Amino acid sequence: MTAQSEDFAAWYNEVVFKAGLVDRGPAKGTMVIRPYGYRLWELLQSELDRRIKDTGHENAYFPLLIPESYLGRESEHVEGFSPELAVVTRAGGKELEEPLVVRPTSETIIGEMMAKWISSHRDLPLLLNQWANVVRWELRPRMFLRTTEFLWQEGHAAHVDEAAARRETMLALDIYREVARELAAIPVVPGEKTPGERFAGAVATYTIEGMMRDGRALQSGTSHYLGTKFASAFDIRFTSELGREELCHTASWV
């Protein structure tokens, strides 16, 4: 084994392979999670899922394929994700009328559904969670840390005002911090990302950063206050108690 002090990245790579947690997939940047590794995922997933449900969020599932035009509705969002997108242009032996993006994250498709489901303040807050796979074209894959396809959870919520959406954002960050520290025994530091490091389209992004043995930080969970940006792009509105039509304030966390 390579010593941690000699090359931490090489040591990590050797551990996950020799422990039988993972193997390389046939497509570039993909991984096969072996039974031992997947059992670790199941244990962490079940505990995180319980905590999420305790906050009132309900699990749902949204499509893997997203119309390309959806991402274009929020300019910062499409600009931020464009380099990482996998796009389907042919299906059933024919060119598609509109290309379909393989889900990199679900703010856009969930925003479209929220606009259909929300009409009154009585429909709020709308608290959703999804367990899914996502695809982001990764040039330098690392097993479990950053691969082309990976498993995750994404929480999405719509609220009546900024205060409620920001409370949701910080609640999610605290859940991630607790699971990382108390269950996985990973030392993490919570904090806010700089404007240049924010999630594409967010007003504010908060993360827990895992502190690695070599002194580097690894982004390990993120929570975003999205303001009314996505609500405006997808027309997510509600009628307030005073009878006024207002935009929802949304949040997401992964």
The proportion of residues in beta strands is 25-35%
Cα-based radius of gyration, to the nearest Å: 19 Å
H-E string: HEEHEEHHEEHEEHEEEHEEE
Number of helices: 7
Average per-residue pLDDT, rounded, comes to: 94
Q: In percent, how helical is the residue content? A: 25-40%
Q: What is the total tally of β strands?
A: 14
Shape designation: globular
Structural class: alpha+beta
Main sheet characteristics? 7 strands, mixed
Roughly how many Å apart are the termini?
33 Å
Quick structural gist:
This protein has 254 residues and is α+β, with helices and mostly antiparallel strands. The chain has helices spanning 8-18, 35-54, 68-72, 75-81, 107-117, 162-183, 229-234, and strands spanning 22-24, 31-33, 58-59, 65-67, 87-91, 94-102, 126-135, 149-159, 188-192, 204-211, 217-227, 237-239, 245-247, 249-253. It contains seven helices and 14 strands.
Written account of the structure:
- The protein is α+β, with helices and mostly antiparallel strands.
- The chain has seven helices and 14 strands.
- The chain has helices spanning 8-18, 35-54, 68-72, 75-81, 107-117, 162-183, 229-234; strands at 22-24, 31-33, 58-59, 65-67, 87-91, 94-102, 126-135, 149-159, 188-192, 204-211, 217-227, 237-239, 245-247, 249-253.
- The strands form four sheets. Strands 3-7-8-14-11-10-9 form a seven-stranded mixed β-sheet, with helices on both faces. It has a three-stranded antiparallel β-sheet with strand order 4-6-5.
- Helix 2 runs antiparallel to helix 6 (162-183).
- It is globular, with a radius of gyration of 19 Å.
- The two termini are 33 Å apart.
- The relative contact order is 0.15.
- The model has no long low-confidence stretch (mean pLDDT 94).
